[in-house]
Amino acid sequence: MRMTSLILVISLFSGCCEATAVQAEDVLLHDFARGYAPQRVSGKAFGTEPAEGNIGSQRGVRLYRGQRLINSYGQGDKATGRLLSPSFVIRRNYIEGLVGGGCHPRQACVNLRVAGEVVQPAK
User: How many other CB atoms sit within 10 Å of the CB of residue 36?
Assistant: First the structure.
């Protein structure tokens, strides 16, 4: 199996896409500016805290929102890990997140789970 770093660039927003005269503002779920909490982190891939851009010799990390992001490059391509958010209520018609990295569905991805089942993987 070929390993790759996952640059997980996520600022999760629950946004409104209804065509109304006044649209509700986006609801920020988490932007990692103050660390990973309340997410649960396991493994070595993501380090002890979110990155502030490129790590070491890494180049090309850009287009993320805010000051920090989840980046799995700190331990090299072979490190693995998992970041699990607490449950949340989807209060808009969609969830927006930014994800970058290799194309490895269900290995390097973000999975939306409803009642424990993956309903929408993002790669």
Answer: 18
- Looking at the DSSP assignment, which residues form a beta bridge with residue 6? 101
For residues 69 and 50, is the Cβ–Cβ distance under 8 A? Answer: yes
Pairing state between β 12-15 and 70-71? unpaired
For the chain, the domains span 1-123
Q: Rounded to an integer, what distance in angstroms lies between the CA atom of residue 96 and that of residue 26? A: 10
Is this prediction's pTM over 0.70?
no
The beta strands (E) that lie in 18-103 are given as: 27-30, 40-43, 70-71, 81-84, 94-96, 100-101
Q: Dump pLDDT digits (tens) for 43-64.
A: 998 889 999 888 888 878 888 8
Q: Which position has the token pair 């891939």?
A: 45
- Taking the C-alpha atoms of residue 46 and residue 108, their distance in angstroms, rounded to an integer, is 13
**By the 8 A CB rule, do 8 and 70 touch?**
yes
Distance CA 75, CA 96 (A): 28
Tell me the two tokens of residue 35: 């660390």
